[in-house]
Amino acid sequence: xxxxxxxxxxxxxxxxxxxSFVGWYGGKRLDASLLVIPLVGFLPPDDPRMVGTVxxxxxxxxxxxxxxxxxxxxxxxxxxxxxxxxGVFLPCTFxxxxxxxxxxxxxxxxxxxxxxxxxxxxxxxxxxxYDPELRRQLGNYPQAFTHVALVNTAYNLTLAEGERHxxxxxxxxxxxxxxxxxx
Length: 183
Known about the structure:
Layout: H1 2-12, E1 14-15, E2 20-21, H2 48-60, E3 62-63, E4 66-67, H3 74-80, E5 88-89, H4 90-102, H5 106-117, E6 129-131, E7 136-138, H6 144-160
Antiparallel strand pairs: 1-2, 3-4, 5-6, 6-7
Helix pairs in contact: 4-5, 4-6, 5-6
């Protein structure tokens, strides 16, 4: 069953003309949630279909260095009911940085990560969205989803850059257990 679903998604959700996965079977529209495909282990990040998907998202959904979840226009308004003009979605921008890092494009990934970190307020918090024109955070604030993405991207960059974090399991020293006396 699992392999059947995997094969179906590969067959039905990838558009060869776009060289990208699409938001729904038979569609021609991109959705930045496609960036989670390698993050959940569905395909390796360097799979040609993912490389094409990342390139398509960079061409279509990146606005002022940040990623929109999808194009905001009349067609998507009929799908989600939201008016055009949404801000860029910060978790999707972190996911782009993850994909770039996992594809070995470390300088670009680090640049996006640093751009995102610069948006934090004086408490280090981020919202769900950002308006690049007005340079302000939008939507739910603070947004846990965004902060989880931030932590994951920091971790993925650390792994991709080959750095060892002092908290890595391989580097932890075993904690000595106290011995029971008198038992």
